[in-house]
Design a protein that fits this description.
Layout lengths: L6 E6 L5 H10 L4 E7 L4 E6 L4 H9 L6 E2 L3
Antiparallel strand pairs: 1-3, 1-4, 2-3
């Protein structure tokens, strides 16, 4: 069986929305696993598979909060 590498998606949100992003990903049956890189700056990484990354981007685009993509 071939393993598919995770595709990291780096984002920044207001720190008060960090838990919200985590709950959204949990609610979508872990399309991506959220890790906090910098809680005070609101920088997160969402590890998605190549198969689920498109759905993660779509969900993030339709959230009622500001989500900025960042380079790491």
């Amino acid at each position: 069986m071939m393993r598919t590498a995770a595709k990291p998606i780096y984002i920044q949100v207001e720190p008060k929305h960090v838990n919200y992003i985590n709950r959204i990903m949990e609610g979508y049956e872990y399309l991506g696993v959220v890790s906090t890189l910098d809680r005070t700056a609101g920088i997160l990484v969402i590890r998605a598979t190549p198969d689920t990354a498109g759905e993660v981007y779509d969900i993030l685009a339709h959230l009622p909060i500001s989500v900025q993509y960042v380079e790491r």
